Amino acid sequence: MPQQPTERDVAAIAALNNLFAPDGKTLHRSPQFVEEHLPDYRIIRDEDGRLVGCVAIDEYSPSLAELVGLAVHPSARGRGYGVMLIEAIADLARRRGYEELFAASYSEKIFEACGFAKVKLDEFPEKILRYTRIDRTEVEMAEKHCFTRVLRKPAP
Which CATH superfamily is domain 7-150 in? Predict the structure, then answer.
């Protein structure tokens, strides 16, 4: 079951996230970055207590957030952890009052299974602007897809 991490988890979160950075599946995260954003993460541990999954939320505006850093250790795949992490972040985003959650990913099936709709990246100029400054490869997405999920209707 996904849970909020503690400071003891910082190094393990950074290591798991960075396992996928060389392939462009996640952005590199330093332990300092993880520590500064710890309330924005959710993690999953295996039966031995080892951290095997993580995900975070990144705010763009009071109504829009991005699901980032979704990572499940290869030894723990096929157990539904990815879906659990996506749902945990969607719940966190909903509780924080965001109206919409989006994600950029190679994993089309999992996001569609979690109720996300495939959209064009152009619908999120905020992401294009931010990631052009951080890592241009994040917006030169070729095989990556962009997904969105409405969490609640905007107030009239």
Answer: Gcn5-related N-acetyltransferase (GNAT) (3.40.630.30)
